Amino acid sequence: MMNYRLHTPEGVKDYLPREYAFKKQIENNIQAVFENYGYCAIDTPTFEFAQVYEGMGGIDSKRMHKLLDRDGSILGLRPDITPAIARIASTAYESGEVPLKFSYTGNCFRYNENYQGKMREFTQSGVELIGVNSVEADTEVLEAAVKALLASGLKDFRIDVGDVAFLQGIIEEAGISAEDAEKIRESIVGKNYVKVSETVNSLDTRDDIKKLFAALPLLIGGIDLLEKLGFSVKNQKSLSALAHLHKIYDILEEKGIEKYISFDFGVVGHLDYYTGIVFRGYAYGSGFSIVDGGRYDNMVKNFGADYPAVGFSININHLMSAISAQENGSGDKYLTFALAKGRLAEKAMGLLETMGITCDEMKEDSRKLIFTNEELKVKFFLAKATDVPTYVESGAADIGFVGKDTLLEEDRNLYEVVDLGFGKCKFAVAGFAEQWEKLKNSNDLRVATKYPNVAKEHFYHKKHQTIEIVKLNGSVELAPIVGLGDVIVDIVETGSTLKANGLSVLEDVCPISARMVVNRVSMKLEHERIAKIINGLKELDK
Predict the structure, then answer these.
(1) pLDDT tens digits for range 395-431
(2) How far is CA 259 from the centre of its chain?
(3) DSSP secondary-structure letter at 405?
(4) All domains in the chain, ordered by first residue
(5) What is the pLDDT of residues 225-280, one digit of tens each?
(6) d(CA 304, CA 266)
(7) 157 near 259, Cβ under 8 Å?
(8) How far from 420 is each of 215, 337, 400, 439, CA to CA, in Å?
(9) CA–CA dist 362, 370 (Å, integer)
């Protein structure tokens, strides 16, 4: 039996003296930069009424730590500090006192999936500039973000800037239905560019607009990208967004820090939250963004006052990881591939070899776990399929090749960029034929599956049907035969196993195939190399 007195809960940690001193020095250096820009330090409660945070910033309420007050009110540990500052700006200050410039450092709390190595308690430092909507205000917070990262000791980083108005303008120019527009927005926010391409191909709009939608994940670059896009769009909203970004760049160039800035039109954030520029900071050594910010002109009005606002937060924990990794790194930047073991890995390597990306070490009889091509600066390793998304999300691998079935079940924060076109099969609901009526009408249904998240998505969210799920790890076809489940949700390729046991497909769930996925940070920092691979794979599929 575990002695809980001797351990910390999952997702939190102790900081011993050396690490704590390192952390505090970073925080102090960052706060000194904020003070130089005229931002006043502020502190907010560790917990507030849950309504302060719900629906703010795209944070799912299920990820909030909630507790019940003595009067029955629902409280929440703060998952983010910005909403609390918006509340303060609205309730503690008069309109004549704006603009307001606040800075902060504090701990935040969010639920994450178990055993993923993610912190449930982490530290944010950031600034909020409230009451000003201008190029100068947007530029100031970007400049403060760059200077804060430099002051922390980080050397190799980049901040990618986009503008939600650019995408909104393209959607309006395309003249598509609200339903199709929402599909595209959701797919872009979810980084599922395979789904973006599928949706775009079905649209009744101009071919040049379709190409622009499909190219969004690769629209990353410097000032030349802005100029190129100026010839690709005709609507005023997108053109105004490009002009706004160009002005920001010009000011940052005058200040000599433009080398840390690039533009990324796949960075849109949550479109019900951000209203203008959006930016993310990335660094080698962290698989996650270290800076998140943008303009959120509609947030403060949720608390009663209508003030525009722009700001950002730095994740101190991710920043610490990046600084440590860069200090201890060799300087060589390899592109690392995680391949799902078996036929998928063999076929994926065949495609890569066709493109000139080879690794002779993988063909040798060896007990090695990681295989390297020093000339191309690439590494490969084989992993269990369910582990591939974990390696890629964390940044241990830059690129992964894995089945869509695994991606649906694991639901990780990745870029899904290419449908590789092999390993095609489907998720389906299967069982004895006599279960059809119960499947169609009953809320008293027991479903056996190796994929509980896929089953939930299908029954709860698509069919709005309540079910009982039985999680199995082996041959789920046994479940209806021995009475453990009414039906199963499983992968079906030929259906021969089902047929041999008197079962049949009762309902299709979705098609699946092999996919290429990319880590969020790698997509930005290794954009040229990865874009070349993406385009090469798409050419092979033609």
Answers:
(1) 999 999 999 999 999 988 899 999 999 999 999 999 9
(2) 25
(3) H
(4) 9-156+290-331 (3.30.930.10), 160-283 (3.30.930.10), 335-421+515-540 (3.40.190.10), 425-512 (3.40.190.10)
(5) 998 898 888 899 999 999 999 999 999 999 999 999 999 887 776 656 889 999 99
(6) 32
(7) no
(8) 17, 15, 12, 33
(9) 9
First CA to last CA across the chain, in angstroms? 58
Count CB neighbours of 270 within 10 A.
Answer: 16
Instruction: Report CA torsion sign: 130, 133, 137, 142.
Output: positive
**Burial class of residue 18 in the structure, from the number of CB atoms within 10 Å of its CB (0-12 exposed, 13-18 middle, 19+ buried):** exposed
Buried b (16+ CB within 10 A) or exposed e, 51-90: ebbeebbebeeeebbeeeeeeeeebbbbbbbbbbbbbbbb
What global pTM score does this model have? 0.89
Distance, in Å, from the CA atom of 308 to the CA atom of 98, rounded to the nearest integer, reads 10
Helices (H), 123-222: 135-152, 164-174, 178-189, 193-201, 207-215
117: left (phi over 0), alpha (psi -120 to 50) or beta: left
The pLDDT tens digits of the residues spanning 138-169 come to 999 999 999 999 999 998 999 999 999 998 89
Q: How far apart are CA 89 and CA 101, in angstroms?
A: 10
Pairwise CA distance, residues 340 & 177, whole Å: 38
